[in-house]
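Translate structure to sequence.
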């Protein structure tokens, strides 16, 4: 059996290694047009920023390693030009000698990955304009940064690569401007969470320009769609990636609606004996079952392993992705898994949305607050998605949520988790459990929460709404939700008779807990419909920022 693999980064090398584990007899050859293999692309921004001192640490393996350890022949600087599916052959060009030759396969694995999208901006091809996709890109940027000492940089695009580059270049002392076509940073997040990332960038001295595109790049500036000018001795284009599907397309392999290669759950393409894995394939979402394109190293490694296994007679089945992602931006970690509010509404779910703000461990142990936004199906309480932002402990919570959503957990399951607790690590009831409690109370316990947007829609619908600020007078006076009256928690029982029981009531405090306590009192005393404002004034003030911004 001769197995040929095209591409030698995450998916291709995982496929080859797994194929070898399954079969000692197979001949396995990987063709890679680049000079580097099996590298950690994810670490590249940190080498540019200087946190990783040695670039070679990101490329720990070379073809010799694979030859010795796996008996896999990796031929770098060899580009596959075409596939002949009838003859089961590929045409390969040796990029150093120029020689073109054919090679035969019994099984072929496409691990051709993705490439950076470069928008058609005037002047984009320029010695100070870069995108970051592979190790050679990384060294080019590093060389430019060290050799030319740019003072300012513009980053076009605010996905995780753009954000990681912003932090790393800022840490080198450059003045950074991020330019984004959408009205929010970090496009995968809901707007009410993205605004926190934006605020953090601004607090760290990064300029953020939203709702505009770069139309021209000159020697030291970027001209935007409204003709405004951004100073930039260096420009990073981080506007996403596109799957490399040309070889597959040439021989009629079916592509999915996202434009990536369509595979079945066993990584088999529409063509017999041709498998595909990694950033060149379309995946499906494990919550909705719908096709998605989420090009990530985590998935590339996993699907590569499956392709290698199944090409050698195995039957590993892919169970889809949740679109889980995590990144660090200065002092914050931002993580997301499952459906966002926007996606869940788009897919027609009737949802309950809540935000909770809790420290990652007790404040006496240095705990710091994180915000967890959760989305659950009102029909049965199934958890659909979560977004978390905070300085510490976000990684651990998001992974708990990943496991929960993967196995179809309902919000009412969360409080029963026997999570590990000791003060250096968590609070007695972990923030994950609070998420479940708030959502369970909201969906099944007549303790509904309401988001700022839902509140606005309620008021706009003509409902007569009373909003009660349950904080102390001083806090109310410093700022409050518009049209709110102030009845501090301690005074509620005395004043309850003054309240019309038929009117819809909204309670809130700073972060949600006291608002919920007052909600309980009112409901227990027979006040009709009472909602607690999701995560109280803290989220309200972020929401106001968001609204101010959209008005500009
Ligand atoms: C800056 C950066 C940060 C990232 N951070 C994260 C992160 O934190 N977490 C995460 O999960 N993911 C992250 N990723 C994404 C991750 O790196 C990719 O998902 C992963 O590299 C995909 O691996 P792959 O093997 O599918 O594709 P690729 O890495 O794109 O490799 C495909 C290879 O195929 C080769 N090839 C293509 N066509 C041919 C041909 N015709 N002939 C020969 N060779 C060919 C290409 O040269 C390429 O080397 C990051 C990516 C970047 C750029």
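Result:
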């Amino acid at each position: 059996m001769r197995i040929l693999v095209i591409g030698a980064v995450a998916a291709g090398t995982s496929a080859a290694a797994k194929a070898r584990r399954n079969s000692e007899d197979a001949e396995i050859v990987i063709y890679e047009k680049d000079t580097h293999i099996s590298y950690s692309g994810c670490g590249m921004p940190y080498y540019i920023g200087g946190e990783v001192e040695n670039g070679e640490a990101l490329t720990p393996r070379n073809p010799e390693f694979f030859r010795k350890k796996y008996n896999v022949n990796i031929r770098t600087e060899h580009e596959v030009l075409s596939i002949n599916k009838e003859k089961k052959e590929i045409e390969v060009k040796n990029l150093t000698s120029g020689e073109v030759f054919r090679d035969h396969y019994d099984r072929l694995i496409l691990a051709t990955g993705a490439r950076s999208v470069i928008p058609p901006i005037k002047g984009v091809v320029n010695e100070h304009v870069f995108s970051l996709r592979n190790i050679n890109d990384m060294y080019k940027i590093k060389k430019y940064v060290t050799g030319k000492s740019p003072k300012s940089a513009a980053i076009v695009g605010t996905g995780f690569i753009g954000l990681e580059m912003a932090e790393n270049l800022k840490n080198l002392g450059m003045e950074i401007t991020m330019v984004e076509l959408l009205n929010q940073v970090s496009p995968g997040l809901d707007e009410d969470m993205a605004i926190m990332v934006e605020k953090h960038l601004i607090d760290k001295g990064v300029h953020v320009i939203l709702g505009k595109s770069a139309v021209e790049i000159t020697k030291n500036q970027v001209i935007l769609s409204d003709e405004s000018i951004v100073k930039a001795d260096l420009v990073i284009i981080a506007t996403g990636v596109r799957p490399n599907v040309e070889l597959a397309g040439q021989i009629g392999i079916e592509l999915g609606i996202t434009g990536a290669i369509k595979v079945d759950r066993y990584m088999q393409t529409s063509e017999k004996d041709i498998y595909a894995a990694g950033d060149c394939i379309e995946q499906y979402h494990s919550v909705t079952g719908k096709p998605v394109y989420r090009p990530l190293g985590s998935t590339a490694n996993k699907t590569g392993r499956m392709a290698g296994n199944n090409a050698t007679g195995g039957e590993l089945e892919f169970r889809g992705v949740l679109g889980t992602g995590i990144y660090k931006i200065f002092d914050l970690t931002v993580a997301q898994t499952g459906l966002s509010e926007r996606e869940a509404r788009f897919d027609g779910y009737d949802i309950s949305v809540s935000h909770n703000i809790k420290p990652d461990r007790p404040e006496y142990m240095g705990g710091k607050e994180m915000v967890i936004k959760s989305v659950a199906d009102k029909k049965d309480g199934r958890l659909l998605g979560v977004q978390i932002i905070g300085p510490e402990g976000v990684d651990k919570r998001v992974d708990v949520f990943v496991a929960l959503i993967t196995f179809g957990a309902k919000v009412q399951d969360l409080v029963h988790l026997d999570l590990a607790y000791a003060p250096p690590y968590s609070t007695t009831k972990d923030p994950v459990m609070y998420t479940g409690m708030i959502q369970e109370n909201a969906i099944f316990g007549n303790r509904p929460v309401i988001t700022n947007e839902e509140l606005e829609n309620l008021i706009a619908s003509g409902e007569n709404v009373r909003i009660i600020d349950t904080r102390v007078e001083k806090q109310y006076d410093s700022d409050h939700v518009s049209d709110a009256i102030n009845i501090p928690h301690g005074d509620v029982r005395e004043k309850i008779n003054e309240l019309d029981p038929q009117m819809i009531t909204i309670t809130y405090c700073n972060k949600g807990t006291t608002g919920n306590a007052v909600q309980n009192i009112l409901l227990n005393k027979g006040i009709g419909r009472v909602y607690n404002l999701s995560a109280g004034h803290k989220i309200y003030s972020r929401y106001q920022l968001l609204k101010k911004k959209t008005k500009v």
